[in-house]
Design brief:
By secondary structure, the protein is mainly beta. Helices cover 5% and strands 35% of the residues.
Amino acid sequence: MPDALTRRDALKVGALASAALTLPLVTTLRASSVSQMAASKLPRPYSLPFRTPPVAQPVMTATGARYRIEQRLLTPEIIPGYRTPVFGYYDTIGGAGGAPGPTIVARQGQPAVVRQVNALPRDHPALRYRDWTSTHLHGSPSRPQFDGYASDITQPGQWKDYVYENRMSARTLWYHDHGVHHTAENAYMGLAAMYVCTDPVERALPLPKGEFDLPLVITDKAFTSDGSLLFNDNSHSSTFGDVVLVNGVPWPTLRVTRRKYRFRILNASVSRAYKLAMSDGSPMTVVGTDGGLMPAPQSTTGFRIGMAERYEVVVDFSRYSAGARVQLVNRGVPNAPDYDNTDKIMRFEVTGDAFPTTDNAVPEVLDPTAARGVMSLRPQGAIRREMRLERSNGEWQISGVTWRDIEESGYHLEFATVQPGTTEVWTIRNNSGGWFHPLHIHLVDFQVLSRNGAPPPVHERGPKDVVYTGENERVDLLMRFHQAGDPNAADPARRPEELAYPEDHGRYMVHCHNLTHEDHDMMTQFCVGADTADVDPISAAPATDRPED
């Protein structure tokens, strides 16, 4: 157990509204709002301009790209006229950052080393927990020691180099904090950012690119009267805000031309899921899911997005006349409370500006390599396992196990040991009553086979790494674990994440991405093949405080 106050100890300190960094606990929720700031002080929805996070700048070397990111205490102006203390990722090479942090853009097959420097205060000034962190590149088949294992922590003043081989197919990933027992607070404070991987297949498609390919990082926050963040985990159940931010801006407005746009939508909220739709009911085209391109585009007038899920959506604004206004709205999901303006996300204002006609189409086939990827798998002959999502004696559990149980086992307790090259079906049962759980399985992509015996909705018909498991639902997932010496590895059309790497062994995490549930202690782990010291997620590549090279 790390040598500091546990999160449970920190919760006992209560509200410290006069602290330099105020993140007080509150004990009640009002029906219309949760923020302590007067509604008149909050910005009117759609009154602020849309902003795109900066792109991180690497130093290129003979072996790939190198980045240096500091985790810092920053004070952006989120609410006009107020400075809000946040934890942000800051690109020291490019000189930009924030909450969300800078987007890292990687190319498939080009390795990247991202140095994460914990430059946060030693202790959280309000909650008094030690500000340790662990960085998870969510959506990457990273080796265990670079995967952001929750107990692989970097203390304030330390740094760690994360090595990413970038062998995954094109997709929208994100990097975020994963520090044990404090992921919810650290992510709520702002430690989240996008990571985009491109590949030749994607670049050859006529999908929108450049200024017409935009990230939408959606979060919800609550604010105190002085503009600081307000935190309430509602007895370790969930953390909700009443102000919806897109890329760190409350309810922004984006000016668009009369053409197609591609939006990479990430739900980076701690506990809130959304059902997204256009306010006029017009269709959107889903072209990508967590694991990258769908085999074929899917049209929908609304879709549910749980915490940590990513959907790539094309919206065609040519159907509108210049001067039209249309909103992206939230229709809501069960057990995510609605406040005065949580039904609003952002607004689009359509202009008559000229635009390029290239890269302005959605082809009928998006991924010609899908026949060899996870979406081609079939369940016949697969190994079958069942996982239960539960709450017992006030603790969140996975199949009766908490992360505390794994800590006390010396990190040896595992949900499963899987063999490289095997195909498995995992049945996920949500037995926790009035709660939904977005379940994240590290390392692999999976196919959603069914929900309660029925086919999944159209937006889930692509490779996934997070599955929204609704109240009392059963979801069946199909996945294949990587194998060394795969006979198809020489096939140039094969998706790279299906290729064999000798490093594809070791321990990986499974957890609920309601980060409040994760912290209390809804996490388990599985092992692929041998669990050897060279890939131990805690000791093989630990953080250090030695002078930087």
